[in-house]
Structure formats: C-alpha cells, structure tokens
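Please fill in the sequence for the structure shown.

STRUCTURE ENCODING:
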C-alpha cells in the first residue's frame, strides 16, 4: 500500500526539533542539526527513537554520523491558512505545507529547494519516494567519466563509484543517511524533477541550505572530518610488481633515486604482508616474503623508507584457523549457514565478520600492534564483493551488508593507524568508494591511459569524486609505450594532484626517456617536492572546511556559469587555477573566472578575470595562475622527502597581488592582517619573498609589511 503524507499536526516543539504526527501513525521529525542544516526523519515513532537503539544499532549509527546532536534552534511560526508551519534558523527556513504536502526551503527569503507533492511510503516495497523540483545542475553522487552535471539513474547497491551526497550551485545539498539501497532519478535535463527512492523502513536525509563551500563544510561535519595523512604519503610513490622480490624492488627504487627520480613511498604488492596464522586467531609478519623481521623493521618501517603495506581480511580455506573461526561464527556465512568462501587471486578465503565486535577488535588491534610507532600506510586488497545470500552474524545481508562491511573494515584500520598519534594520522589505499572516503585519504582510481582522451577521462574521475565531498584521490602514471608528449602532460597534471604512483614494471620509467626529456621530468619532480607544504596544507584545511584538493569550476565559482563550461580546468586548493593541456597541441583556451584577478606563474603577467586566453604552453610547463589576494608557500628543493626538515618547512613565498588571505600551508603559523591599505604578516622569518609587480616589501623584525609602491 502506498502511504502519502497529507494531514499533519505539530505534536511536539523543542528548541532543536519539531515533531509532526500524520494520519497513518507515522511521525515526521525535523531537526536543526546546524545552521542551514535540516535533518528530515519520517517513519513509525519507534523507528525514530534513538534512545531505544540496542548496542549494535548505536554502533552503526555512530559509524555513519559524527555529529548527531542538534546544535541550532528553530523559531516556529504557524502560517495562514492553517496546516502550514515555518521553521527558521538564522537566514534559512523550511516551510511545511499540507494539502498538497510540500517542503519549501529558503535562504535569505529566497526559495532555494522545494519538494513536489510526492513524499510517501510504499509498504509493499518498503520504499520511500521523495521528489524535488529542480532548475539547475546537480553534482556529486560519486565518480564518473561522464558529464559533471549528473543525469539519468544512479543506483547505490553494489556501486563502488557511488557516494550518497548531491548538491547544486542553487545552494542546496542532500545526504541520504541509509545503508540500504537508494536510487537517484535525475532526468535528462537541468529542469527535470529529481526523485529519490530509499528502500528503508524509515526516511533519514539531511538537507543543506547554504553556498556550495558551506555545504561541503557542513557535510564533512555530519559524517566526520578527514584524518591527516603522513607527510611522505603525499610524495612520489613506487609500486612493487607482482612476484617481484623485496630486494629487487628496493634496488630498483635506489636506481630511481640515483638517476634523480627519488621515490618517497614504497607500495608493496598483494598479498597481505601479515597474513593470518594457520592455527590461531592472529596475524603476523610474513618472514618468507620480508626476511628477518628485525632487519625489516629497522631498514624499512623505522628507517629511510616509507611503506604502504597490503592487508587482507581473508582467512585461508583449509587451515585450522578457518575451521575454528567457522565454528565460532566469526566469518561471514553463506545460505547454508556455513562460512562463505570467496575466491581471490591468492587462494580461497573466508572473510572475518567485522559486524561481530570480537572479530572487529582482533582485526583492528592486531594492526595497531604490528604498526605501532611507525608512519606506515595500508592498502586494503580485498574487493569485498559480497553477493546476495551472504550474511553476517546478526542477519545483516544483501545491499545492507554490502554497504556496511567496507565501512567497518576501513574504520578498523583508521583506528589502528591513528592510535597514539597527535594529531591523528592515517592513510588507507583503496579503490571502492564509501562514506569513509570522506574521512580518510588514500582513495585511488585506476585509469588505462593510452591516449589524450584517456587523460581527460582520468581528470573527470578526479574532479567528479572530489565534487562528491571526497577530499582527495590519487592515480598511477603508466603508459603502454614511450610517448614523450603524453607522458609529460600526464606528469604535469599529476604534480597538481593529491599524489601519484610509478609502477616498477612500467615501460615508461623516467630513465627510459632521452636526456632532454629526463631533464624536464626532473623539473616536475622537484616542483612536486616544493609543493608538498601546500598540498598537505590543503588537506589540513579540509579538516576545517571539507573542501577537496582539486575543485571543479561549479564548486569553486558557483556564481560564474561561464566557468562551469571549462571542465578541463580546476582550482588546486584555494590559490591556484590549473588548466592542463589534454591533447597533442600546445595551446589551450583558459577562462579566468570573473570577479578575480589572476597572475600567470609562468610569465608573471596579471590578468583581470572574466576573459578567455588562448594560452601557448610547451611540454616543459603547465598553465597555472595564482589567485589575487592569495599566496603560495613553497618548500625547499628536496631530492626526496626523507630530507624533509620539520624546522624548515618553507623556503619561499610567492605573492599574488596584495595578500589578503592567510596562506594554506602545513602547520600554518603565518597570519595576515590588513591595516590602512597595507598587509602585515607574521611568520615569514627567513623566507624569500617574491612579490608581485607594484608591491613593496619591508621587514620589521618578525613582521613583514606589504604595501603598494608609491
């Protein structure tokens, strides 16, 4: 039976929420989660009572939401005619109307978002339907190589490219808080209705009414702020080939460094380097693969190298441990009630049931013990392909288990890596998207780049996933053949990303190119090392703002619709506009967003925004523009991050016009204060300052004064 919400009555009013009853014993609860954030919950009253949750349900709730309390308050008005109410908080409000039912969201008294007359529950399908009218593009919802604005139908169940977060430059955003399947029907045009089907017994969604940057900030606060990665995790990675010995791999890394292409992180290939022991519930180092563990710890984990180590939830079939854990019901189950068997390239395994607290504790605590006092990162090698018919200890199954299981797996590793670290640090390399993708760095994408159109597709994957409130994503640089132009354009783009990996088995290692090309590659390598303080600063800033490393134009400039059309350029952090060349030519059309001025990093020329440049750029460079009012803080040239000196993080500062904003930089202690037309800056001690034309720099002890030349 389909139930429509039509007749409402305000039954309870508190500062942070209002409860409405309906004619079907359903309850509509609207909460003032934060300023501009409205949480809508609807269902039977018992389903919305958080105080009645058992321990397992509470743990799942805490896994999904970092912020559950109401930190704002409503001012409630009854509208005429009756059966309508307005709930206001700050400059935002929601109006609830009946006959027909609708929700209307306002910002500064302007209608921003409204539902159509469809909000109902189909009890035969256990499906909620919520329909919104729209008049603008919708972004987010995960990773794609298709159009940035989302259209068509997106289904969550089993979709490793999906994130349950959508937003519009029209200043609204939606987060669907459910582990059960969800379908987004987005239509074919920007004025198509937007319908969400949620296959759950209770409706739970967050509506954000704010600018896109504030929406990202509030969404990040809702699900959890990103954990900082270790320093060397944002350097250059080198990936071990399958079956390559550790000795050969290390020697190859040393050859790269000797040739002038130092690598910062060694990524070991699967399988897990600490597999489960055959006869007891524990994991330990694989001595056959790693050799003497004391030497390994001294030389690698606590020595010159930074490591990314593969790990797996798989317990090998046929071992005494598998039989023991099957008897204890510590493994996921098949339809017969026996341990489900998963086929992997490294043998058949059963998967630990992480919904069971003892199994979860084993998995997390053992990683913490093995990696304590190291800055190692982890790579989750399991694809976690959980089919229908597989269940967990308490009956979780189907799409619910497919969404829940990777969350528990990743959360356990986050806890293990961040334990005893202040501030918290963690980096988990994985390909599949989940809500944890917004909480911890390490997400990567696979791309088979053979031609320039493939490079464009890679950039689209980066920008769409980061437009889904994921802070960062990395990739691998590999080509099937030596192609100087494509490689250099690929590398230039990679320098202005969250990070990249060089595979050991690549036919395009830097040393394989001619000397002239190697010289250019080294220039990009050094530039990347100098950008590390800025890259880490962006991620540190994301802990406060939720904004990603690479920002597509609709996110960076939501009021400039012309900018939206330039999909191959992006804002790298808040200060740099990057316009990579993604074809065989040396020219690209660049749009400089209006309302800003821009400084060409290659020539030092200042341009007013709102214009299009036909920009010429050879393969030894990349078009990059500094945003006026900002600055770029660069570190010293390092042959590798092993030389990083925490006492001298910065070496040089580039000013783009009169500085107004505090710089984005790791461990930032630089502060800008404006007074009487000049900028006064503290924290520039010992740094070279490259000021823009027309500016005068005067040092006064620990303070620097920037003023216009007279």
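FILLED IN BY: designer on duty
SEQUENCE:
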């Amino acid at each position: 039976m389909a139930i429509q919400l039509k007749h409402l009555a305000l039954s309870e009013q508190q500062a942070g929420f209002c409860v409405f009853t309906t004619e079907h014993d359903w309850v509509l609860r609207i909460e003032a989660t934060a300023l501009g954030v409205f949480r809508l919950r609807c269902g039977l009253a018992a389903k919305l009572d958080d105080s009645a949750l058992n321990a397992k349900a509470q743990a799942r709730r805490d896994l999904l939401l970092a912020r559950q309390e109401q930190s704002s308050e409503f001012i409630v008005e009854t509208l005429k005619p009756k059966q309508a109410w307005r709930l206001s908080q700050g400059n935002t409000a929601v109006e609830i109307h009946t006959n027909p039912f609708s929700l209307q969201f306002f910002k500064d008294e302007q209608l921003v978002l409204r539902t159509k007359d469809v909000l109902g529950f189909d009890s035969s399908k256990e499906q909620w339907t919520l329909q919104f009218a729209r008049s603008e593009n919708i972004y987010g919802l995960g990773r794609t190589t298709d159009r940035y604005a989302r259209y068509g139908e997106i289904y969550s169940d089993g979709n490793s490219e999906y994130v349950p977060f959508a937003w519009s430059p029209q200043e609204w955003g939606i987060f669907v808080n459910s582990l059960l399947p969800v379908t987004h029907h987005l239509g074919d045009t920007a004025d198509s209705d937007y319908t969400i089907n949620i296959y759950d017994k209770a409706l739970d969604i967050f509506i954000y009414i704010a600018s896109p940057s504030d929406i990202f900030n509030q969404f990040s606060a809702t699900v959890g702020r990103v954990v900082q990665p270790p320093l060397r995790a944002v350097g250059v990675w080198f990936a071990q080939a399958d079956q390559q010995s550790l000795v050969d791999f290390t020697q190859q890394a040393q050859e790269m460094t000797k040739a002038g292409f130092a690598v910062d992180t060694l990524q070991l290939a699967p399988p897990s380097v600490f597999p489960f022991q055959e006869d007891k519930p524990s994991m330990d180092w694989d001595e056959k693969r790693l050799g003497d563990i004391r030497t390994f710890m001294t030389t690698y984990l606590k020595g010159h190298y930074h490591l990314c180590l593969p790990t797996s939830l798989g317990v090998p079939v046929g071992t005494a441990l598998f039989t023991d854990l099957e008897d204890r019901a510590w493994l996921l189950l098949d339809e017969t009630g026996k341990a489900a068997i998963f086929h992997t390239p490294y043998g058949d395994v059963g998967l630990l049931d992480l919904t069971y607290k003892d199994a979860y504790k084993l998995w997390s605590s053992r990683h913490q013990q093995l990696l304590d006092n190291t800055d190692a990162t982890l790579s989750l090698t399991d694809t976690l392909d959980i089919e229908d018919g597989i269940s967990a200890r308490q009956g979780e199954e189907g799409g619910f288990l497919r969404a829940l299981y990777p969350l528990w797996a990743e959360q356990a590793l986050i806890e293990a890596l961040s334990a005893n670290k202040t501030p918290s640090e963690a980096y988990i390399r994985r390909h599949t998207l989940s809500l944890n993708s917004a909480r911890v760095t390490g997400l990567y994408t696979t791309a088979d780049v053979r031609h320039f159109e493939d490079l464009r597709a890679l950039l689209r994957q980066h920008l769409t996933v980061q437009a889904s409130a994921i802070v960062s994503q990395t990739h691998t640089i590999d080509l099937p053949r030596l192609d100087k132009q494509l490689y250099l354009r690929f590398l230039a783009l990679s320098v202005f990303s969250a990070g990249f990996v060089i595979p050991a088995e690549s036919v395009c290692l830097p040393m394989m190119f001619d000397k002239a090309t190697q010289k250019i590659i080294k220039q990009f390598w050094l530039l990347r090392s100098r950008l590390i303080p800025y890259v880490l600063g962006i991620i540190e800033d994301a802990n406060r703002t939720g904004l990603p490393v690479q920002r597509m134009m609709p996110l960076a400039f939501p009021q400039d619709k012309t900018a939206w059309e330039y999909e191959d350029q992006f804002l790298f952090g808040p200060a740099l506009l990057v316009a990579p060349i993604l074809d065989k030519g040396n020219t690209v059309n660049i749009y400089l967003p209006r309302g800003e001025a821009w400084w060409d990093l290659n020539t030092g020329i200042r341009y007013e925004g709102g214009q299009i440049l036909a920009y010429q750029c050879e393969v030894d460079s990349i078009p990059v523009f500094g945003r006026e009012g900002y600055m770029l803080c660069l570190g010293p040239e390092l042959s590798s991050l092993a030389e990083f000196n925490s006492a001298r993080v910065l070496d040089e500062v580039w000013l783009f016009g009169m500085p107004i904003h505090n710089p984005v930089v790791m461990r930032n202690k630089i502060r800008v204060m404006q007074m009487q037309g000049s900028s006064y800056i503290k924290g520039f001690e010992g740094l070279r300052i490259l000021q823009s034309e027309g500016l005068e720099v005067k040092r006064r002890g620990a303070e620097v004064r920037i003023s216009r030349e007279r």
